[in-house]
Specification:
β5 (about 90-100) and β6 form a beta hairpin. This protein has 4 helices and 8 strands, in the order αββββαββββαα. The longest helix has 23 residues, at about 5-25. It is of the alpha+beta class and about 150 residues long. It has helices spanning about 5-25, 75-85, 125-130, 135-140; strands at about 30, 50, 55-65, 70, 90-100, 105-110, 115, 120-125. The chain has one domain: Trna Endonuclease, Chain: A, domain 1 (3-Layer(aba) Sandwich). The protein starts with a helix and ends in a 9-residue tail after the last helix. Strands 1-2-3-5-6 form a 5-stranded mixed sheet. The chain has a 3-stranded antiparallel sheet with strand order 4-8-7.
Length: about 150
């Protein structure tokens, strides 16, 4: 692995940890599943799982330093959707996107992704402003029943 590729992966891991902290501060229970890219190709595992008020957000995380389009492998989205399906009806599969300093974190429902002719999914910078932010995720989870309602 080249030094540049290694540094890019380390920055990505740092951003994943940053997102987990930010979600925790906003009232989500969350965990980072650090197995992505760790020779577990057959594993079906999201990068981050965040839950709030009985809603589970299952996330594939993508970061970029520059404002270019983001491409996501079809296989990663398929695995994300399968994990969410197994988790149940309250699981929402999302792609969490961060482009260095241009936008805060944005969350794309997998149903909003556009597939390319080559089989990848693509998100452009122009698309990013219309996707969810953390407050939208909080609002979505506020519509669900809280645990106290069952006690």
């Amino acid at each position: 692995m080249s030094e540049a590729h290694r540094k890019s992966r380390v920055r990505g891991f740092q951003k994943e940890r940053e997102l987990v902290r930010k979600l925790w501060e906003e009232g989500f229970a969350c965990i980072r599943a650090p197995a992505s890219g760790a020779k577990v190709r057959r594993s079906i595992q999201p990068d981050i799982i965040a839950a709030r008020n009985n809603v589970i957000f299952v996330m594939e995380v993508k970061t970029r330093r520059k404002g270019k389009a983001i491409y996501i492998e079809k296989d990663k989205i398929d695995k994300l959707v399968e994990w969410a399906r197994r988790a149940g009806t309250n699981a929402v599969p999302l792609v969490a996107l961060y482009v260095n300093r241009e936008y805060s974190w944005r969350f794309v429902p997998v149903t909003s992704l556009k597939q390319t002719e080559g089989g990848y999914y693509k998100v452009t910078l122009e698309d990013m402003s219309r996707f969810y932010d953390i407050n939208t995720l909080k609002s979505m989870s506020d519509k669900s029943k809280k645990l106290e309602n069952y006690l």
